């Protein structure tokens, strides 16, 4: 079997059991976590009713004016929790964890769901990637990929952002886009030797956000087959 697949019996990597617990909780829908019907910040933000904070903007303004502003997207630490809300607390105390009723409402409204897809495309562009197919989630390099890959490889806080982004996609109706993202990154890291520094995060965190066990197994096996 794959040396990365059976996480329960794998104590060789420091923290590997915690890591699996983290993504397992997510995959199981956070057992014991209660929805708070009074909290609606994420839904209101995606409806364009409130701005992100601190030093934020309305969602459409972020899409229009922040897209391609790589310096801002790199250095601003308050927007990612608003663009990609998840059911855990993050570094921005002004951002609210996603509530189940919000997730349902965002998924059911074509307008808010479309905005989330636009957020994903904007952040992909920042990382030097482009969504080639909205159905399969297949990615390709963007025109600025060299510069963007360089930055992506260098700043590991972006790896934490990716974990959040993938979890968010799964919460808000875009589970099918995750595998394409991870396949692209693995190909770049293992075949083209560009995004090599992402490999540990990919193996220990990102693959674990995928809910389909067969897909996870396939991706772990891919690493095993191509790692020297």
From TrEMBL:
Matches recorded under InterPro entries: OGF_rcpt (IPR006757), OGFr (IPR039574)
Gene Ontology terms for molecular function: opioid growth factor receptor activity
Domain Opioid growth factor receptor (OGFr) conserved: 40-226
Biased composition (Basic and acidic residues): 1-11
One of the Pfam families matching this protein, by short name: OGFr_N
Coiled-coil positions: none
Gene Ontology CC, one term: membrane
Region: Disordered, residue numbers: 1-24
Family of the protein in this entry: Belongs to the opioid growth factor receptor family.
Name under which the protein is recorded: Opioid growth factor receptor (OGFr) conserved domain-containing protein
Species this protein is from: Arion vulgaris
Gene symbol of the encoding locus: ORF121046
């Amino acid at each position: 079997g794959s040396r990365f697949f059976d996480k329960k019996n794998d104590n060789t990597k420091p923290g590997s059991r915690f890591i699996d617990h983290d993504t397992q909780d997510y995959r199981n829908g956070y057992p014991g976590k209660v929805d708070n019907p009074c909290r609606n910040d994420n839904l209101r933000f995606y409806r364009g009713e409130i701005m992100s904070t601190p030093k934020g903007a309305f969602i459409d303004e972020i899409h229009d004016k922040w897209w391609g502003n790589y310096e801002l997207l790199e250095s601003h630490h308050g927007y990612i929790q608003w663009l990609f809300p998840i059911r855990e607390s993050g570094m921005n105390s002004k951002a609210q964890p996603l509530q189940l009723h919000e997730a349902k409402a965002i998924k059911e409204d074509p307008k808010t769901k479309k905005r989330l897809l636009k957020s994903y495309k904007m952040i992909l562009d920042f990382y030097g990637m482009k969504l080639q197919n909205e159905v399969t989630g297949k990615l390709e390099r963007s025109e600025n990929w060299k510069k963007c890959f360089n930055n992506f490889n260098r700043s590991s806080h972006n790896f934490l952002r990716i974990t959040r982004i993938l979890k968010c996609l799964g919460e808000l109706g875009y589970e099918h886009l995750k595998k394409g993202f991870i396949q692209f990154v693995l190909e770049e890291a293992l075949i083209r030797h560009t995004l090599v520094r992402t490999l540990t995060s990919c193996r220990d965190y990102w693959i674990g956000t995928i809910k389909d066990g067969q897909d996870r197994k396939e991706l772990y096996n891919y690493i095993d087959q191509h790692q020297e």
